[in-house]
Amino acid sequence: MKAELFIDSRSLLGEGPCYDDADKKFYWVDILKKKIGIFNFKTNNITYIHLHAYPGAVAVRDSGGLIAALQDGLYFIDPDNEKAELIVDPETDQPANRFNDGKCDPQGRFWAGTMDMEESKTTGSLYCLDTDLNYDCKIKNIGISNGLVWTEEWMYFIDTPTMKVLRYHFDPETSAISNPEVAVEFPEGAGYPDGMTIDQEGMLWIAHFAGFGVSRWNPFTNEQLDFVEVPAPNATSCTFGGEDSADLFITTARKGMSEEELDKYPLAGGVFKVKTSVRGTNNYKFKG
Predict the structure, then answer these.
(1) Whole-model pTM?
(2) Which run of H or E residues covers position 188?
């Protein structure tokens, strides 16, 4: 499969794709430009929310508006006036960290992880914000907290420098995770595992930073099943959407690319799309 350009956003560090089926809107973030992008499928218009800090991830709030993981905490975002209301900053003692990837689980809780901004330390953690706005630290000593997906009994999680996807037993009632084991191990030379999503067959779709695409994996056999080529070196994350939940949206980044590389891959930083042969899972909303 080959992905085609959907939005020529030229993001420095595009991330956090999120499709809202109810409002027919697609969201993504450009971390380094401190903004959230919104593509409205009803009007084909693109608007941006400008923020005071780096955004790592965004999700739709069930009661209206958005929830986002920013550099300095978790916030409610009002898209109409760009107002950001702090919910909690669990890392006031870690000024060198920022929030990175995050999303909502099927029960409507918001999970987001942190990372060292210099990408040199394992000071990151993974947090879960419940619907009563209480948070809990789930995993510590993370390098670069990245992809998250769930099934009824599993949570999958990527700490990028480990080159692995871990599978945890997941209790949907309590949000407890336990018994981590390796589900996918990235092969050498394939780039770095970044964001991911999951389809209705339980297969993982993982973005390859420095790997020109997104791969599909069976997490129970560590077998790569398919690959989507992207005409940009750094795929950062992906999510399903569209009328039949078969469109895969892929964010990319221009960060760190030379002028020569940008001339060769001028679409880098764009959002790409490909029609797959499977149905994906929907992005869940925050119920708090």
Answers:
(1) 0.97
(2) none
Give the type of residue at 70: L
In a domain, 217, yes or no: yes
Tell which phi-psi region holds residue 264, choosing left (phi > 0), alpha (psi between -120 and 50) or beta. alpha
The conformation of residue 130, written as its DSSP 8-state character, comes to: -
Task: Report if residue 135 sits inside a domain.
Answer: yes
Q: Which three-class secondary structure string do you get for 21-75?
A: CCCCEEEEEECCCCEEEEEECCCCEEEEEECCCCEEEEEEECCCCEEEEECCEEE
State how many domains the chain has: 1
pLDDT tens, position by position, 152-172: 999 999 999 999 999 999 999
Q: What CATH number is given to the structural domain containing 167? A: 2.120.10.30
Other Cβ atoms less than 10 A from the Cβ of 37: the count is 23
Three-state SS annotation for 210-268: CCCEEEEEECCCCEEEEEEECCCCCEEEEEEECCCCCEEEEEEECCCCCHHHHHHCCCC
* 111 beta partners: 103, 128
Would 153 be classed as within a structural domain?
yes
CB 239 within 8 A of CB 17: yes
Residue numbers of the domain that contains 222: 4-275
The predicted-structure confidence for 114-149, as pLDDT tens digits, reads as follows 999 999 999 999 999 999 999 999 999 999 999 999
In a domain, 220, yes or no: yes
For 169-220, the pLDDT digits (tens) are: 999 999 999 999 999 999 999 999 999 999 999 999 999 999 999 999 999 9
pLDDT band at 36 (very low <50, low <70, confident <90, very high): very high
Residue with tokens 């990408």: 119
Nearest Cα to 210, choosing from 273, 124, 271, 268? 268
